[in-house]
Write a structure and sequence with these properties.
By secondary structure, the chain is an alpha+beta fold. The chain contains eight helices and eight strands, in the order H-H-E-E-E-E-E-E-H-H-E-H-H-H-H-E. It has two domains: 121 residues, no CATH class; 80 residues. Helix 2 packs across helix 3 and helix 3 runs antiparallel to helix 5. The longest helix is centred in the N-terminal third of the chain and has 29 residues. It is flat, with a radius of gyration of 23 Å.
Length: 236
């Protein structure tokens, strides 16, 4: 048993275990996402510079929209009425440039619905935006691998490896003094760490309520923690 696990067991015996709450875990996730997305972007920028055709296969994207500029080329708005509500659809052609070098073309469709009696200047009751990548020459729809998909795969591997390692948690969790343990206060095995992280998709499918449970349950467990038999605790 590791030193961290021993501390956790001792705390449990004394009734002093401190479980990590929802917002502390959110901040840890944000740190992890920034670290991994920045690393993945750096790697793909280097590869795209060495292999020019790569940017046509993988749509590059910087975290938080940094080093990215959007320019609207064409925009058109149409309005209809649906069950007494105004439905406004704005279709734009947007040119997106990443790090001043790689340019992509998108059709951006924004749909807004306004409650009956509301005017176009009112706040929309619902609003959705869809981005569709276009061929820069033919303007037809095309599909490339989104960098966000690659980042998510890398994040999953990163979380599984770090939680099953002697660190017992990702760098984001460690920065906030958190570790992940099983019911005995020990570090996770690779299968349990993999199960815990893959089960996060279940928490997503519950409209993220599965994640919010970490703020409501007695031992601050999210839905995927409950199913996998894991806890996120403060390492004291």
């Amino acid at each position: 048993m590791s030193h961290t696990a021993t501390i956790v067991v001792d705390q449990q015996a004394a009734g002093e275990t401190i479980y990590a709450g929802f917002w502390r875990r959110v901040f840890a996730l944000f740190i992890d996402w920034i670290l991994v997305s920045s690393l993945v972007l750096t790697v793909f920028l280097a590869l795209a510079a060495a292999i020019p055709g790569l940017s046509n296969v993988v749509a590059l994207k910087a975290p938080l929209g940094l080093f990215t500029t959007d320019r609207t080329l064409v925009s058109k708005t149409t309005e209809t009425r649906e069950d007494g509500r105004i439905v406004s659809v704005t279709e734009s052609t947007v040119e997106r440039t990443v790090v001043g070098q790689w340019t992509y073309l998108y059709r951006v469709t924004k749909t807004e619905k306004f409650n009956p009696g509301a005017t176009r200047s009112s706040t929309a009751s619902t609003s959705t935006t869809k981005w569709q990548q276009l061929d820069p020459v033919t303007r037809e729809n095309i599909k490339t691998t989104d960098l966000d998909d690659i980042i998510m795969i890398v994040l999953m591997i990163y979380w599984i490896v770090t939680e099953a390692s002697p660190l017992q948690g990702s760098f984001g969790k460690l920065a906030l003094g958190l570790v992940v343990v099983d019911q005995r206060g020990q570090r996770l095995s690779i299968p349990r760490a993999a199960g815990r992280n893959l089960l996060k998709f279940v928490s997503v499918f519950t409209l993220f309520i599965g994640f919010m449970l970490a703020g409501w349950t007695r031992r601050k467990q999210a839905l995927h923690d409950m199913i996998a038999g894991c806890f996120v605790v403060v390492n004291r």
